[in-house]
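Notes from the 1:1 (GR / supervisor)

We went over the backlog. Supervisor wanted to see one worked example end to end before approving the batch request, so GR pasted a single chain during the call. The sequence is below; no edits were made to it. Supervisor asked that the structure be written out right there so they could see what the output format looks like.
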Amino acid sequence: MQCRSIWFVAVAWLAACRAGPRPLVPGTDSCDFCRMTISDVRFGGEIVTRTGRIHTFDSIECLASFYVQADRREAVREVWVSDHSTGVLIPVERAEFLKGGTIKSPMGRALLAVGRDSVEALRQRFQAEPIPWADVLEMVSKGSG
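Structure output shown during the call:
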């Protein structure tokens, strides 16, 4: 019996470590950076901390601003952004970012994320320019853009 209990605890612990992301809920979730209610999940994202806590964001710029704060970055386990084409959360490592053109993001910095297979179509649609994630982080750290 004791072995079974240990196995159950180990499985439960592993499941807790894999929490997130979860779908953003428009009109219910709010941004953990600017406190606005999330209205368009296509611009949003989530950060999952090492403890499994999920932080939700209404825009790439809010997510990036939250991330660059040193005391919070060290606790980050995963960063997820919404694929603008589908609204589905994808890992930041598999996302491409577009800036400018006719993009109307919630916080006004004209940023969106998209899966690599849709980037060219959206770049043309919005007349936007690609921007690497590192440049997004630099832009919000400097308060420019």
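Supervisor's comment: The chain is about 30% helix and 20% strand.
Batch request approved.
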